[in-house]
Amino acid sequence: MTSFDHRREPPASSRDSEGPLPVAIGLTAAIVAAQEDEPLILTVAATGEDARAALPSGPFDPVRHRTFEIGLRAWVAEQTGMSLGYVEQLYTFGDRGRHARAGDRDPHVVSVGYLALTRIAEEQVEEIRGFRSWYEFFPWEDWRGGRPEAMETTILPGLSAWVEEAPDALSSSGLRRRDRVNLLFRPQGRGLDEENALERYELLYEAGLVEEAWRDGREAALKRGVKPPPLGAPMQHDHRRILATAMGRLRAKMKYRPVIFELMPPAFTLTELQRTVEAIAGRHLHKQNFRRLVETSAAVEPTGEVSLKTGGRPAALFHFRRNVLQERPAPGLRVGIRG
């Protein structure tokens, strides 16, 4: 499986021209699965000089592909053998400077990002290649084991130093640095808002605390004079930003749409469902409250069978009720994750 080469050689005419940079359209997929209480993201094996992971990506071919989504499904099937199920478009990523250099005459890549959800069957576990926990890239987003160590050792000290440099500097949102840090990393009372994964990554990027900021020559990173210490695994191009967008979208959407069931096997226990929701959210949930929410949602019904995999009392198996999509306008689990 190969990734889309953002720096492929452009035609000589475009390299020599002093006119506008040529633009290429790429399609980038954040393909999410869940296995053994971990949210997994499909990555492309590193090749060449760049050892960083990348999301699967490929060029849009307007001759072969009638739509972007058809193109995405086609090259993912060609490259991975996977037939994607649930797919939705995330955002169009075209920021100049993220993977371009001063004086660069290569095509500027506008990447259309997608979120795709897939299931990994038990018999496929040994065949999995390229799937990695998304918390390898965002360790500060996983609070299931308590406050992440990186918060105390790297993030809060680094953000505090950045704030002190210019505490009243305003961002494009109109908030001061101090207010943004407090909102995203030091919220009062309820804990971090799990949906703000992208906003937290962008703040760390702006403060120069992630390797991509150093790579892209951002002022806050270069001021330090040395590459920042590791803060999650970096990714090629703009792919960690795309993955953060996918995380926030999935965390938000599972509250009002039954997308979580796209990650579940056909039959599952309520404990397995809860652990999958917790894995995506990066939070533990109160067992009885969760089961009450599931019951209220009417999204599942018992199969009449039980699972013996728990090692204790047999657990009832359930499956997703697809009729709920016609019965309710917002048939999500409405889980209260923060706190």
Topology (elements, then pairings):
Elements: H1 12-16, E1 23-35, E2 38-42, E3 57-59, H2 68-80, E4 86-93, E5 108-117, E6 131-133, H3 149-165, H4 177-185, H5 197-206, H6 211-215, H7 219-222, H8 239-253, H9 270-281, H10 287-297, E7 300-307, E8 315-320, H11 324-327
Plain-language structure description:
The chain has about 350 residues and is α+β, with helices and mostly antiparallel strands. The chain contains eleven helices and eight strands. It has helices at about 10-15, 70-80, 150-165, 175-185, 195-205, 210-215, 220, 240-255, 270-280, 285-295, 325; strands at about 25-35, 40, 55-60, 85-95, 110-115, 130-135, 300-305, 315-320. The strands form two sheets. Strands 1, 2, 3, 4, 5 and 6 form a six-stranded mixed β-sheet that branches. The chain has a two-stranded antiparallel ribbon with strand order 7-8. A hairpin with a 7-residue loop joins strand 7 and strand 8 (about 315-320). Helix 3 packs antiparallel against helix 4 and helix 5 (about 195-205) runs antiparallel to helix 8 (about 240-255). The longest helix has 17 residues, at about 150-165. The protein starts with 11 loop residues before the first helix and ends in a 12-residue tail after the last helix.
The percent of residues in helical segments reads 25-40%
Measured distance between first and last alpha carbons? 41 Å
Number of distinct helices: 11
Overall average pLDDT: 83
Q: What is the makeup of the main sheet? A: 6 strands, mixed
Question: What is the string of SSEs from the N terminus onward?
Answer: HEEEHEEEHHHHHHHHEEH
Shape: globular
Category by helix and strand content: alpha+beta
List segments where confidence is low: pLDDT < 50 over at least 5 consecutive residues: 6-17
